[in-house]
């Protein structure tokens, strides 16, 4: 089911919702004991506070993840997720976060579970009335799901022109250029991303992502290696937010760049302190790095 990929990518990356009374703990804390415990908690909370919009939004996210994690109960969980997102939007129709959750569901879920691209588009249009930038971002995802590259590119260009002072669309354009190996274009967008003056929590996260991607682009292209090293060394010193790559991945990328720059001793020192934890992909990367630095 496409549900897990889009729900996790979109909902968990959203800025923190402004808490309403009574205050809910953050979603990651609610989920600390696992999805079943999270479901039990949010069901009890919603029963006690049926008009609490944030609780319905959180219930939608949790039920969506349960739907993606379950084989036999997926349809039931998906329907609960949909009704929760709908209720959150009904209670607070001008909330960007709640509207994004509902749109993401419509685009991710199969039709039998309530997925509906036409309804997704209707809510994107409704969002334009109170946040045109967020609506344009959701429109990008819409055309991506529809696999309409021409409309995706046209929408991205609109974002770059209409919101040039924001980092968001430069980051998205940089990732696309990087994927297409147009490294000069990728650098141009990521560099611009770091010069914007918007000071919000969301903008800070985007800028951190751009800083990380400068290092990643240097590694892929083997160009501007010194810039990539400086970017990742800077990244290591920043206070990282929840929706950016972890310090360990940045360390692995930096160690690889040190090797490109013939700084083997620096790479060896860094590889020694990287903890892959339970990340299998990082563990494989670390294994390769250890071989390259003769450890």
Task: Give the topology, please.
Blueprint: H1 3-11, H2 27-30, H3 35-48, H4 53-69, H5 74-91, H6 96-108, H7 117-127, H8 132-146, H9 149-162, H10 168-179, H11 183-193, H12 201-221, H13 225-237, H14 247-260, H15 264-273, H16 280-292
The mean pLDDT is: 91
Strand fraction equals under 5%
Mind telling me which CATH architecture of the domain at 28-148 this is? Answer: Alpha Horseshoe
Using the CA coordinates, give the radius of gyration: 21 Å
Find the structural class using helix and strand composition: mainly alpha
Keyphrases for this structure?
single chain, 295 residues, mainly alpha, Serine Threonine Protein Phosphatase 5, Tetratricopeptide repeat, 71% helix, globular
Word description of this protein:
This is Tetratricopeptide repeat protein. Residues 1-18 form the signal peptide. Keywords: Signal. This protein is mostly helical and 295 residues long. The chain has 16 helices and no strands. The protein has a domain at 28-148: Tetratricopeptide repeat domain (Serine Threonine Protein Phosphatase 5, Tetratricopeptide repeat, Alpha Horseshoe), CATH 1.25.40.10. The longest helix is centred in the C-terminal third of the chain and has 21 residues, at 201-221. It is globular and about 60 Å long. The model has no long low-confidence stretch (mean pLDDT 91).
Short description:
With 295 residues, this protein is mainly alpha-helical. 71% of the residues lie in helices and 0% in strands. It is globular, with a radius of gyration of 21 Å.
